[in-house]
Amino acid sequence: MGKRSKPVRMCLCCRQRGGKDELFRLIRSEEGFLIWDRTGKAQARGYYICRKADCLQTFDLRKKGQLKWLPGTLEELISALVADN
């Protein structure tokens, strides 16, 4: 048997492709809030954003009014970016 390929996803902002483990996965809760899906396995519609501050800010501005962040989620993502660097 051949090797299994890694799932590839695309960032909604910059449109670059990367492995699932290289991107943040956000899901929409039943209440309409965006939540960081750290496991990548939650059963909900997923949005993938690459690990760049520019992409997070662009996504936040584009979706302003359409999607609500669960309080603290955006700050958690930014803290994870800082920790990666």
Topology:
Layout: E1 8-10, E2 17-19, E3 23-28, E4 33-36, E5 46-50, H1 53-62, E6 68-69, H2 73-84
Parallel strand pairs: 4-6
Antiparallel strand pairs: 1-2, 3-4, 3-5
Give structural notes.
With 85 residues, the chain is of the alpha+beta class. It has a single domain (8-84), classed as Hypothetical Cytosolic Protein, Chain: A (2-Layer Sandwich). It has helices at 53-62, 73-84, and strands at residues 8-10, 17-19, 23-28, 33-36, 46-50, 68-69. A 4-stranded mixed beta sheet has the order 5-3-4-6. Strands 1-2 form a two-stranded antiparallel sheet. Strand 3 (23-28) and strand 4 form a beta hairpin.
Give a brief description.
The protein has a single domain (8-84), classed as Hypothetical Cytosolic Protein, Chain: A.
Low-confidence stretches: none
What's the CATH superfamily, by name? YlxR-like
The order of strands across the largest sheet is: 5-3-4-6
What's the end-to-end separation, in Å? 37 Å
What key phrases describe this protein's structure?
4-stranded mixed β-sheet; two-stranded antiparallel ribbon; 85 residues; Hypothetical Cytosolic Protein, Chain: A; alpha+beta; 2 helices
